[in-house]
Amino acid sequence: MGSVAPSLAEMDASVVKVTRRTDLRDVPLPGSPEELSHSYCTDHMVTVRWTAAAGWETPEVRPFENLSVPPTASCLHYATECFEGMKVYRGYDGKLRLFRPDCNGERLVSSAQRASLPGFKFDELKVLIAKLMQIDGPRWLPKDQPGRFLYLRPAMIGNGPHLGVQTPKEALLFIIAVPWPDPSKKKPEAAGGQHGLKLLASNPDTIRAWPGGFGYAKLGANYGPSLVSHGKAQAIGFDQVLWLFGEDRQVTEAGASNFFIVWENKDTGKLELVTAPLENQLILPGVTRRSVLELARKRLTQSSGSLAPVEVVEKQFTISDVHEAWKEGRIVEAFVCGTAVSRATPYLTQIWSCPC
Ligand SMILES: *Cc1c(COP(=O)(O)O)cnc(C)c1O
Fold first, then answer.
1. Which of 45, 136, 275, 285 has the least CB density, counted as fewest CB within 10 Å?
2. Residues 133 and 216 in one domain
3. Nearest C-alpha to atom 5 of ligand 1 is from which residue?
4. C-beta of 170 in contact with ligand 1 (< 6 A)
């Protein structure tokens, strides 16, 4: 006798249920303590529950409030959590825009898979965000203030109550929107001053990601353990850790952003824009990284005007390669990029590493 597999509901953002709040919150002013707190959210949030037995439930846009999870919840003990970081911008034409949201949707699904959390059709994410912004957009990103943006944090947690170590049987996807300080309006000294961003190369005793691990996924489990190094770097005046990997000390990425260097190739003397590759799954495939690569390949590989052509390369390189290039005066610039740290506007960087 064949049994019929139960059909699990797919995520369907088109049937979202909306509950509006009546006690609207004050919208914080740019530069206010609320905005700088990175914790003050807009009036509403999106939540979508999932169970292994029934699949995705009806998505909801509802008043922002604290979540309730059992103290035994999977995410609190086993880090069954993944997230995304995006921004929604008010354009000068009055429209709201997301930057390549399908890339974030795809990455969220890939991260969820790595953490045994449920999948969904990635383009549902942008539909859910659009619903949230239909409601919170007009007040939180006023039309007369073009250029403003909100930081969006979609996240998924295993919130089931089973303390035994097992794949999550319940999950919650939620999306919150957070007023965020504009990095382009930071005082120069706060953005690294005239020296640019200062990166401290990691010590061999601390590794962010390794082959077969999950460095390529945006999992909370990647970040908590990196905070000791980050704190130490900040305590001695650096902005971020530049994560190295392996005995040859390959340069991977910096903090929660991807790292690029422009140098003259040692053998050919040609200008190269170099960043770590994706194949070994050590680094997070940044949407900004991908955009920088695509734009550079499209526009910089032929000489234009006074600009010499630049070869765009994703390859492994080591901190010794960087040292050598520096000594030989071949480095043109270096920068990091990521949604939270830049509006695709790279900062110049300064790198320091102990010769281990
Ligand atoms: C989020 C993140 C990035 C940048 O990704 P974007 O999609 O460009 O914002 C880079 N590295 C790490 C470790 C990250 O978490």
1. 285
2. no
3. 286
4. no
Largest CA distance in the chain: 75
Give the total number of structural domains in the chain: 2
Cβ–ligand 1 distance for 257 under 6 Å, the answer yes
Has residue 339 been placed in a domain? yes
Model pTM greater than 0.90? yes
Minimum CA distance residue for ligand 1 atom 14: 256
Per-residue pLDDT, averaged over 170-185, amounts to: 91
Over residues 49-76, mean pLDDT: 98
CATH of residue 305: 3.20.10.10
pLDDT at 183: 73
CA of 288 to the centre of ligand 1 (A): 8
Do residue 17 and residue 69 come from a single domain?
A: yes
- Range with the largest mean pLDDT of 47-56, 185-194, 326-335: 47-56
**pLDDT value at position 343?**
37
State whether the beta carbon of 255 lies less than 6 angstroms from ligand 1: no
Q: Mark whether 217 and 294 lie in a shared domain.
A: yes
Query: Does the beta carbon of 229 lie inside 6 Å of ligand 1?
Result: no
Which pLDDT belongs to residue 189?
53
Q: Whose Cα sits closest to atom 10 in ligand 1?
A: 257
Burial class from Cβ neighbours inside 10 Å (0-12, 13-18, 19+) for residue 208 reads buried
Q: Where are the alpha helices (DSSP H) in 167-305?
A: 227-235, 287-299
Among 146, 181, 216, the domain boundary falls at 181
Alpha carbon nearest to ligand 1 atom 15, residue: 256
Nearest to 175 by CA among 42, 76, 1: 42
In the 8-state DSSP scheme, what is residue 59?
A: -
- Work out the pLDDT band at 7, boundaries 50, 70, 90: confident
Same-domain pairing of 218 and 301: yes
85 lines ligand 1 (CB under 6 A): yes
Say what the pLDDT of residue 186 is.
64
**Ligand 1 atom with minimal separation from the 218 CA:** 15
User: Which tens digits make up the pLDDT trace of 228-255?
Assistant: 999 999 999 998 999 999 999 999 999 9
Q: Are residues 131 and 201 in the same domain?
A: no
CA dist., res. 130 & res. 88, Å (int): 10
Domain that holds residue 323: 197-351
| Minimal-distance CA residue to ligand 1 atom 6 | 286
Pairwise CA distance, residues 260 & 296, whole Å: 12
